[in-house]
Amino acid sequence: MRGMQNPVIVALDVPDINLALTLAADLAPVVGAFKIGSELFTSGGPEMVRRLRGTGAAVFLDLKFHDIPNTVAKSVAAAVRLDVQMLTIHTSGGSEMMAAAETSARRTAEATGGAVPLVLGVTVLTSMDGANLREIGVDSQPAEQVTRLGRLAAAAGLRGLVCSPLEITTLRQVLPAGVQLVTPGIRIGGEKADDQKRTLSPREALAAGANWLVIGRPIYAAANPRAAAEQILASLS
Ligand code: C5P
Predict the structure, then answer these.
(1) Using one digit for the tens of pLDDT, what is the confidence trace for 186-231?
(2) Is residue 34 one of the residues assigned to a domain?
(3) Cα(234) to centroid of ligand 1, in Å?
(4) Domain-located, residue 55
(5) Residue 122 C-alpha to ligand 1 middle, in angstroms?
(6) Which residue has its alpha carbon closest to ligand 1 atom 15?
């Protein structure tokens, strides 16, 4: 991915622009990119993205678009105009919605002269189990549903997926080789897992076939975030 020096993407899950920019300035020399999620985007808006991009950092805009194809296409176009390097959509929006998102990313990048961002599909939220799926009318277990949605995403033209550490191996068996996998739920060992129930270490996740690692609390909540990021990078080599 353009402008990314290594596979570590730091989730800036902090409540405001100033905190996020201070953290990013400290970490930029050692990590690959920063993820802006719905909390930070809702408080900081597009200005947050522009200011972070203005520092030269690569940005993953994680707003998980899920709407009718036309609306998702226009939202993706707006994200591409912010010059982000990765963004997310929900695969459960269906193949027409996913294809519209990918086409919009390509067309908008062509029109603006920028690079095409990686449009990533989110399958089943890791907070959902079989009972949660049944209550919304899905009879499959999460693993089966993840595989089904992953295949659908690849067939619709998506070039990447977000998946939990424990889904990497299965998805690698069913997806075309070029599909990029972005994996949260990374823990180094020793620290608490927080609310993440299924974790792997950075090294294990890459060995299993992840391309990119999203790491939040183990870095931003550390006493020394820069040292924590450096320790993670050292564990990869
Ligand atoms: O702090 P932690 O390392 O758990 O942060 C993980 C990041 O990845 C958070 O921003 C979280 O919203 C996101 N994420 C996740 N699990 C998913 C999808 C996204 O933890 N299935």
Answers:
(1) 998 766 667 777 789 999 999 999 999 999 999 999 999 999 999 9
(2) yes
(3) 22
(4) yes
(5) 12
(6) 184
Tell me which residue range forms the domain holding 193: 8-235
Position 1 in a domain: no
The domain spanning residue 120 has which CATH number? 3.20.20.70
Of the two residues 127 and 136, the one the predictor is more confident about is: 136
Query: Measured between alpha carbons, how far is 49 from 125 in angstroms, rounded to an integer?
Result: 24
Write out residues with Cβ below 6 Å of ligand 1: 11, 13, 37, 125-126, 162, 164, 184-185, 194, 196, 214-218
Give the pair of three-digit tokens for residue 49.
Answer: 């993205």
User: Residue 195: inside a domain, yes or no?
Assistant: yes
pLDDT of residue 152: 98
The ligand 1 atom at the shortest distance from the C-alpha of residue 217 is 1
Span 46-62, average pLDDT: 97
State how many domains the chain has: 1
